[in-house]
Amino acid sequence: MTINKVIVELGERSYPVFIGHGAISEINTVIPKTAQRAVIVTQENIRFAVKLDIPSITVPIADGERNKNLQTIEFVSQKFAEFGLTREDVVIGLGGGMVTDVAGYAAAGWHRGTAVVHVATSLVGMVDAAIGGKTGVNTSAGKNLIGAFWQPRGVICDLDALATLPENEMRCGLGEIAKYHFLSGDDLLKLEMPERVARCVKIKAEIVSADEREGGRRALLNYGHTLGHALERSGNFSLAHGEAVAIGMIFAAHLAHVLGRIDQARVDQHYKVIGQTYGLKVKPENKIDRSELIRLMHGDKKAVTGLTFVLDGRSGIETVKDVSEQQLHRAFDAMQLVEK
User: Fold this and answer.
1) Which of 12, 33, 51, 112 is catalytic?
2) CA torsion, points 316, 317, 319, 323, in degrees to nearest 10?
């Protein structure tokens, strides 16, 4: 049973990510030596357990993106206080991306910085959300607009946890894995799932190591997310994150084609990877309100100087600023005309 180890290189704050079946066996190796107690932040539907060498309590939070808010942070923090959690102790985020975002942000604020360890139980968490230190919650103004960069002490990606996921959660994770096909240019389909997940982790670790606070290259990890986040919010989060990102990447491909950055063959490759290989949606099922989606995209955290997208091009994936609404409409038209 092989467990892969990837290091996120951040100097004194570097940390390991363990990937593989049975990787949970490494949990106590990443707990800070100062920790005398732990709070495990999780959800009732998480069917995966951790065994720690120190006393702990479990704090379940409500499911769903609508509960990823400041009220949940206050609830979790109150539980920290009741248990007597100190800055020398540790918070464990056990679950998918929502859980690790909440646990990480709560830990970042508790006593102005308490250690956190993430145990990712979803495919999205393993290849994206649990790695890199971006934590946060949603508000009515937008997704993940309140948060902090707070790197974990370690991340556990035990592939045994994937067997506990419903099909829609696995599909959600495949949307994020599809993203790495275009970021890396690697033929990830040649790899079995453990190696594929490990390769995605390595790609993200390399990007985070080079650009921890998203000043440049790290923004590329948001490929497909500009429209994806808008679709999530416009549907009150009824569309799963990974599926929204998949549609967002298809839209981004059409937009790149409109801008003359890629040819039709590259657009077709997006449909092949996202739709045919991973079986994900390539357009919204319901009629969309373009004006509402464009309004939401204007509120994206990348949109500092006008509409900003991460787009494919001859030099690879890049950030493109000042996209016009007319160009967006042309991309919407192209996406909706395709019969897939």
Assistant:
1) 112
2) 90
Q: Under 8 Å CB-to-CB from 304, ≥6 apart: which residues? A: none
The answer to whether 76 and 59 are in contact (CB under 8 A) is yes
169 is catalytic: no
Query: Does residue 148 sit in the same domain as residue 271?
Result: no
Residue 185, domain member (yes or no): no
Q: Which of 153, 169, 185 is the last residue of a domain?
A: 169
Domain limits at 87?
Answer: 4-169
d(C-alpha 331, C-alpha 334), whole Å: 5
Rounded to 5°, the CA angle 132-136-141 comes to 135
Q: Is 112 a catalytic residue?
A: yes
Among 118, 153, 202, 225, the one annotated catalytic: 225
Q: Are 102 and 41 in contact (CB under 8 A)?
A: yes
Burial 74-100 (b: 16+ CB within 10 A, else e): ebbeebbeebebeeebbbbbbbbbbbb
> Averaged in consecutive runs of 10 residues, what is the pLDDT profile of the chain (340 residues)?
93 97 97 98 95 97 94 98 98 97 98 98 95 95 92 98 87 90 88 93 96 90 94 85 94 98 97 94 85 89 77 94 95 85
302 is known as an active-site residue: no
CA distance 309 to 318: 8
Domain boundary among the residues 169, 190, 208 is at 169
Integer Cα distance of 230 and 143 in angstroms: 9
| Active-site pick, 214, 232, 233, 270 | 214
| Beta-carbon count within 10 A of 2 CB | 11
Is 229 a catalytic site residue? Answer: yes
C-alpha angle 103-107-111 in degrees, rounded to nearest 5: 155
